[in-house]
Amino acid sequence: MATTQHPSTKQDILQHLLQQGQATAQELAEVLRISPQAIRRHLKDLEEEELIEYQAIQGGHGGTEPLMGRPKHVYHLSRKGRHQFPDNHAQFAVSLLDTLQETVGSEQVSSILRKQWQRKAQEYRDRLASGTLQERVAKLVELRRAEGYMAQWYPLDENDDGCDRFMMTENNCAISDVAESFPSVCGHELEMFASLLPDCKVERTTWIVGGEHRCGYLIQPKNSLS
């Protein structure tokens, strides 16, 4: 009983979300060994403090088609919540890029950032291998989730040619500090997705840096556009 009122419980919740990326109230209750009711009280407090956010998900996890039924809340750290933990990596990266820009100019920095995303694309390409478009999209989402992007995917309506379209969403930007100061990285990221799926058109539909709550990408085969 005393555990539910332990002053470190909220910190334990934040720590778990930092390590795991996301969790439901039930999962947190099981891990921290306190009642779901107590967990929900703490989650409500953390939400009011703007340290966590949640996404309502119907059915299974992001790689499955949504099912009917009551949606469950999946919690993750907000940007403010992440800042509760010591981490100078983002600040250092932005400072380094600022210094580079002052030293070599914006065009050269953009070239360096593009090269970085080309390297990242090669890393992804080696792991995506071959497969159907759905399999490749699912694998890409898996890789992005592992890097903290809170990615999901779902199929859209099938067109007359029988070619599926897919939507990939990212509810968290793992490089938000850099992206806000150097939004060109988002353009390079989009180029990377297009290079990984050369038989598709990849279009950004929503953008966190633009003030929206997530980044969204419409993926559709080029042969369906002709």
Automatic annotation (TrEMBL):
Keywords linked to the UniProt accession: Transcription, Transcription regulation
InterPro entries on file: ArsR-like_HTH, DeoR_HTH, SUF_FeS_clus_asmb_SufR_cyano, WH-like_DNA-bd_sf, WH_DNA-bd_sf
Protein name: Iron-sulfur cluster biosynthesis transcriptional regulator SufR
Gene Ontology molecular function: any one: DNA-binding transcription factor activity
Entry keyword annotation includes Nucleus: no
Pfam families linked to this entry: HTH_24 (PF13412)
All residue ranges annotated as the HTH deoR-type domain in the record: 6-66
Entry superkingdom: Bacteria
Cross-referenced SUPFAM superfamilies: Winged helix' DNA-binding domain
